[in-house]
Amino acid sequence: MTDTLTLATIGICAGLLLALFGNVVVLPFVLRWQSEWLRSCRRGWDRERAAAATTLAYRFLMPLVFAIVGADAAVSIFGEVQ
To answer: How far apart are the C-alpha atoms of 15 and 20, rounded to whole Å?
Structure first.
């Protein structure tokens, strides 16, 4: 039981580190590309709302999903070795 919790905690930390990397390094490139793409397509979408939705996903949803997937992956992969 303790080993499983330790593995899950390590997986959560790894997932949160990946989400932090995405937030710090990848998000500025995504926002720049998204703004250019919306400007060139001229579909009438509000660039500010699209940027806010993308930032919300990167800052809140991705850490949650990455933490859950990281915990599950760590327990699934390394838990069977024991």
So the answer is: 9
